[in-house]
């Protein structure tokens, strides 16, 4: 029996053209796509945020039409900043934080129409021995006790030492100066700085256990 296949997609940041290039090889593969968050902001092309969101929504609503098993989208810090900026009577500092991080205010009307979708985005997904998360985890803390802010914002100490969880963590959020994928026994970093480098990473993984389970941390 074939083992299930997952394709993890790093931080897209409104790179609609790059996303299309990376998606095409996986159509009709039966794989599950897992987006690691930060679909939006810092888009290098006109209307990139809208195009990326609409494409992801299209895939997620009918994955079978594209020969996919499922499409999972995780929450990144940019989706979280957008949610805070959309909140009723949002503090000025929340709006400014989003805008200062490459946001396009023209996205707000569309985002408000789909606010419920943003609000339900999970922080993690587990497939077999892989833990998918936007930024990482705080070392030596059980998964169920992780702070959600760490899951979408953390860099160190996660990047500098093993985390102690029984998973290989697949994450985005932090890209290397050479824009390469980081492959270590305890973590795989696939943010390759698409909006700067022109390289968006889609990492294909075989789920190693036939008894793989699924779990998500939601709001």
From TrEMBL:
Enzyme Commission number(s) from the entry: 3.1.-.-
Pfam families per record: Metallophos (PF00149)
Domain Calcineurin-like phosphoesterase: 6-174
Coiled coil: none
Protein name: Metallophosphoesterase family protein
Superkingdom: Bacteria
Entry's Gene Ontology molecular function annotations: hydrolase activity
Keywords associated with the record: Hydrolase
InterPro entries xrefs: Ap4A_hydrolase, Calcineurin-like_PHP, Metallo-depent_PP-like
Keyword Hydrolase: yes
Enzyme class: hydrolase
Organism of derivation: Cyanobium gracile UHCC 0281
């Amino acid at each position: 029996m074939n083992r299930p296949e997952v394709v993890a997609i790093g931080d897209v940041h409104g790179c609609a053209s790059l996303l299309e290039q990376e998606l095409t090889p996986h159509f009709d593969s039966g794989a599950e796509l897992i987006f690691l968050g930060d679909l939006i902001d810092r888009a290098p092309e006109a209307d990139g945020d809208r195009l990326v969101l609409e494409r992801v929504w299209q895939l997620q609503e009918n994955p079978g039409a594209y020969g996919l098993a499922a499409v999972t989208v995780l929450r990144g810090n940019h989706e979280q900043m957008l949610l805070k900026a959309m909140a009723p009577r949002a503090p000025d500092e929340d709006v400014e934080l989003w805008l200062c991080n490459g946001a396009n205010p023209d996205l707000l009307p569309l985002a408000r129409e789909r606010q419920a979708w943003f609000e339900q985005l999970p922080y993690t997904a587990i497939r077999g021995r892989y833990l998918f998360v936007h930024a990482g985890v705080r070392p030596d803390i059980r998964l169920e006790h992780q702070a959600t802010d760490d899951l979408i914002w953390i860099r160190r100490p996660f990047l500098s030492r093993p985390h102690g969880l029984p998973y290989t963590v697949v994450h985005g959020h932090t890209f290397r100066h050479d824009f390469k994928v980081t492959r270590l026994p305890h973590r795989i970093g696939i943010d390759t700085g698409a909006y700067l480098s022109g390289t968006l990473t889609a990492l294909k993984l075989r789920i190693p256990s036939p008894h793989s389970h699924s779990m998500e941390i939601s709001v």
